[in-house]
Amino acid sequence: IVAAEREAEAVAGRARERSRRLAVPETRVKPGSIAVRAQEEYAYVSRDVRRLVLIGGSLIALLVGLWVVFQASGASPF
To answer: Is this structure's pTM higher than 0.90?
Structure first.
């Protein structure tokens, strides 16, 4: 996870440097450059979605595990 975050920070740093170097008026920006910037931003989004799915899945697995333990032990109120 730390390595992935470092890589994401490096990508963001390169994007900032690139945008500083390419500070040109809107009329001179290539159409594909927006797609490049969007792709770099979506890297953050996909990383965050993966983390959310991992945490949510872990919580659901924990709840199911606890339910099984309570059912097997007879400690369930139902």
So the answer is: no
Give the model confidence (pLDDT) of 39-55 as tens digits. 677 878 888 999 999 99
In single-letter form, the type of residue at position 69 comes to: V
How far is it, in rounded angstroms, from Cα 71 to Cα 7? 45
Distance from C-alpha of 65 to C-alpha of 35, rounded to nearest angstrom: 44
Residue type, 48: D
Q: Which amino acid is at 19?
A: S
Q: Which two tokens stand for residue 77?
A: 């109120």
Residue 77: which H helix or E strand, with range? none
> Residue 53: enclosing H or E segment and its boundaries?
helix 31-73
- Asked whether the beta carbons of 66 and 27 are under 8 A apart, the reply is no
